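Memo to structure team: turn this sequence into structure tokens by end of day. - J.P.
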Amino acid sequence: MRPGQLRIRLMSLLESGIRVSFATRLFDLSHGFRAASADPVLFLRPERRDNGERTFRLLEGERLPTGYGPELCRRVFDTAPRAVKGGRVRP
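Reply from structure team:
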């Protein structure tokens, strides 16, 4: 399902009075909700300390426009990820 289609379906649920919770890595989708919704939107993200350490705790906070996938890929595979046909990224 495309992000635009997903946004329409989720907004329909909200307009019907249904409380919606979801996890996404789609930055534009999540921020589109903040702009389109009159209701409060709560963002949670994993805590990450300044030194890069993860605590595995969720904290309230705005979504970041980037993920840490490339960093993890370098740490695990000792190489930067590369794009492949279809838009997927792999080591």
